[in-house]
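Per-residue structure
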Amino acid sequence: MTQKAYAKVNVFLKILGTRGNYHELSSRFVQVNSLYDTLTFSHKEKENAHFALEGDFGCPLEKNTIYKAYLLLKKEVPKIENFFKTHKLTVDKKIPEFAGLGGGSSDAATFLRLTNQTLSLGLSPEALASIGAKIGADVPFFVYNYTTANVSGIGEIVKPFEEEALNIQTFTPKIACDTAKVYTAFREGFLKDINIKKAKTLEDIPSQTLLQNEDAIFLNDLFAPALSLYPKLRDYHDNNFFSGSGSTFFRSLDG
């Protein structure tokens, strides 16, 4: 009982406004086929009620996105607790954390899909995405398991975008970007520069065309505020593109 949890990059990420403490966005999410964590269910040595999660995580269990997904799914389907009395989850972590690649969100979404499939719960992708949205804005994209999608609202609106899969190469410098701080910096210094009409036009343009014709600062509204907080990111720019709130850079190897 194993499933891959793929990373993603944001080909573009445009902030359209705010909704309370959240940000309305328009973004193109693209799956990175060469980079993924692997989630595996296996039997425990001894039966117990403790949710057993094994993996190299940089946070305590109660803050782990997978554990949050487990608690939310258990509220919807209490019987899953019986399965986890006898089974543990092992995660082989390959996606860097705090890197703009959606690793935690992908792990949570893949846990929801794998549990739904393994236990034949019969929950629809929409139901799983609704659960996932309570964990993080990126989780619904990973629940739907699209190769490419336009994501809007605060992450809850996910529409598949038909195009050839991109061959994405990523590089993550050892700079841990704090997502909350990057968004705060955007609100304080860049919110006034929003151009909703221009941002929305990107949703119809193929990803490869965007990467060939636009620059990294324009495509990702969070790149400039990230640079203001973490100036050493400039050392790694070099015509690469910036994913999410960072610190990963990427390029397409397709031309």
